[in-house]
């Protein structure tokens, strides 16, 4: 009986430490919601709407399911020793390291998006930005999506996110299909966050 009573506090400490690890980069408790003002520009037309990204809960392993995240109806996120990671079902088991733990201005890294595309990230600056949710100190991380075949490296998209440790992504934009005349520019800015 004494062994059980000692195990419960140890389990509680482990869970508390795991939650703290998540919160230092991005709050990922079930029910946490980020409301964004999103814009999609396709040629001369522009659509503006409100999108709510919500943590639905734990899936297999340590990935958490998130709805309407970065223009994906369903995606998975987690914090790890590497940083804040993202995965979408259409990319299979590939995951993107959106923000590197301990990142500093000038740092860069590469993630594999698909078997044919890589994403090159670079921390450009630490900015103080204003979005509808308020003022945030955030790292501006630019990225370029390019073909991963040798000697090709054709750009397929580019963009930037502003990542505020403790809050997550507070602003961003992406241009996809740069070489196509029907390219789409999407942007978003945080309106509110509801932490659980």
Features:
mainly beta, 12-stranded antiparallel β-sheet, 196 residues, 1 helix, YmcC-like fold
Q: Percent range for helical residues?
A: 10-25%
Tally of domains: 1
Give the total of beta strands: 12
Helix and strand pattern: HEEEEEEEEEEEE
Main sheet? 12 strands, antiparallel
Which fold does the CATH topology refer to?
A: YmcC-like fold
Number of helices: 1
Beta content: over 45%
Describe what is shown at a glance:
This protein is 12% helix and 57% strand.
Characterization of this structure:
The protein is mostly beta strands and 196 residues long. The chain has one helix and twelve strands; from the N terminus they run αββββββββββββ. Residues 1-22 have low confidence and may be disordered. 24% of the residues are buried. The chain is globular.
């Amino acid at each position: 009986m004494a062994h059980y009573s000692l195990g419960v506090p140890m389990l509680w400490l482990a869970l508390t430490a795991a939650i703290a690890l998540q919160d230092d980069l991005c709050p990922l408790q079930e029910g946490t919601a980020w409301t964004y003002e999103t814009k999609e520009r396709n040629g001369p037309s522009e659509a503006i709407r409100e999108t709510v990204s919500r943590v639905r809960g734990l899936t297999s392993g340590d990935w958490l399911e998130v709805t309407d995240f970065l223009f994906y109806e369903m995606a998975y996120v987690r914090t790890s020793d590497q940083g804040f990671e993202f995965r979408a079902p259409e990319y299979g088991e590939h995951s993107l390291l959106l923000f590197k733990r301990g990142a500093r201005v000038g740092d860069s890294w590469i993630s594999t998006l698909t078997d044919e595309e890589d994403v090159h990230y670079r921390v450009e600056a630490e900015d103080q930005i204003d979005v509808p949710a308020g003022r945030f100190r955030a790292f501006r991380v630019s990225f370029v999506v390019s073909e991963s075949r040798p000697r090709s490296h054709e750009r397929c998209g580019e963009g930037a996110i502003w990542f505020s440790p403790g809050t997550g992504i507070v602003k961003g934009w992406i241009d996809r299909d740069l070489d196509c005349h029907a390219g789409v520019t999407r942007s978003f800015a945080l309106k509110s966050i509801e932490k659980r």
